[in-house]
Write a structure and sequence with these properties.
Rossmann fold; six-stranded mixed β-sheet
Length: 394
């Protein structure tokens, strides 16, 4: 009995101690931190020919867009006070108008907030109607046919000078600087090629030169012997080609084979770093003259040089032509969204129209049609397989 009593007393003491511990104040847990708001995803489309004969130009443009998107996301931007992440939706139009409209429809269905592209005038113009109907702003970095911004669409913009400026300037240059008295013209029948050739022909006539022949090919042709033989008989001082570098390269080779020693000219479509490879041994120093729609000079050159160096370090390739204009176009579109406090096209479009942005391609502002104001041209020739700048003209 005595033992049982001791055990009972001990049990009571243990229970009392336990009760005392329960009555001690438990440490107060810190309130859980509020979760960070999820970033809004803003989709921006890019379309260019990343397959086909001018895939090197399309990939160049797409890489310019990728570079801009990565930098925007690294900057941690907010729009309307909320964090945002930009997503690039890249489509291939293969420089084909039908594929271009299909790509445009796909981007509209994906509910992109804006589109950068297309590269070619022949794909940009039909696609612009689809974007316009959907109320989606479109900035082309490189389509130069004047029609693009003359359709009355509110949301179309162009980053470079158009063919009226480009073709006319080249026509004048052929007569006044290259001293050509007779000129032959070839175009590839695309919206770009025919357009720039028409303006070149007008520029030649205005400067007092004579067009002695006009021939046609297409943007997939590889044999030009018939038209070149016809033109050889006319003994032109200059042959102008309205088209792209993938056709111009083989044409130069065949000119050499036929003994045509004329200067060769073209617009921005041939003015690429790839042309010497495409022409192989068909291209002599100071034979080819072309103009890139765009250009920087003076203090702006430092920014462009840095972009080109950064681009090569990132992608392992030189800029072909228009990657800097794509890069700036993406930044301009994002800047308009930030300014307007919204990625809704209806809300940020007025800010896009009022753009005043300092980019690597220069100061960017648009006129009432959406054309770049004070657009530049860079006249170039080729020496030892590399482009050489002759002059920047505004």
């Amino acid at each position: 009995m005595q033992l049982n009593l001791k055990l009972a007393v001990l049990a009571a003491a243990v229970a009392l101690a336990a009760c005392g511990k329960k009555e001690e104040a438990a440490p107060v847990a810190a309130p859980a931190a509020a979760p960070a708001p999820a970033a809004q995803v803003i989709k921006i489309g890019h379309v260019g020919p990343t397959s086909g004969a001018i895939a090197h130009l399309g990939k160049d443009n797409e890489n310019g867009a990728k570079m801009a998107i990565e930098e925007l996301n690294a900057a941690g931007l907010t729009i309307g006070g909320a964090p945002v992440t930009f997503e690039l939706l890249a489509e291939d139009d293969a420089a084909d108008p039908k594929q271009g409209t299909a790509a445009a429809t796909k981007l509209v269905d994906a509910k992109v907030a804006g589109v950068i592209g297309h590269l070619n005038s022949g794909t940009t113009i039909p696609a612009s109607q689809i974007y316009n109907d959907a109320g989606i702003p479109q900035i082309s970095p490189s389509a130069t046919n004047p029609k693009y911004t003359r359709q009355g669409y509110a949301g179309v913009f162009r980053m470079v000078a158009d063919d009226v400026h480009l073709g006319g300037t080249l026509g004048k240059y052929a007569v006044e600087t290259l001293k050509a008295k007779t000129v032959a013209v070839i175009d590839d029948r695309t919206a770009y090629g025919q357009g720039v050739a028409d303006e070149f022909e007008k520029g030649v006539a205005a400067a007092g030169g004579t067009v002695v022949g006009r021939e046609f090919t297409n943007d997939k042709a590889t044999d030009f012997n018939a038209i070149l033989t016809t033109l050889k008989a006319k003994k032109p001082d200059v042959v102008f080609f309205g088209g792209m570098d993938a056709v111009a390269g083989p044409m130069l080779k065949q000119m050499k084979q036929l003994g045509i020693n004329a200067k060769f000219m073209g617009g921005d479509g041939i003015c690429s770093s790839e042309l010497p490879k495409l022409a192989a041994d068909g291209m002599a120093d100071d034979q080819v003259y072309c103009a890139e729609a765009g250009g920087v000079e003076g203090e702006q050159k430092e920014g462009m040089d840095k972009f080109r160096a950064d681009f090569k370090a990132k992608f392992g390739a030189d800029v072909q032509v228009y990657a800097p204009y794509v890069y700036d176009a993406v930044k301009v579109m994002a800047n308009a969204m930030v300014t307007a406090g919204s990625a809704d096209p209806k809300v940020y479009l007025p800010a896009l129209k009022a753009t005043n942005y300092k980019g690597v391609t220069g100061n960017i502002t648009f006129d009432e049609k959406g054309d770049i104001k004070n657009g530049a041209l860079t006249l170039m020739t080729y020496k030892a397989g590399a482009r050489t700048t002759l002059a920047v003209i505004r």
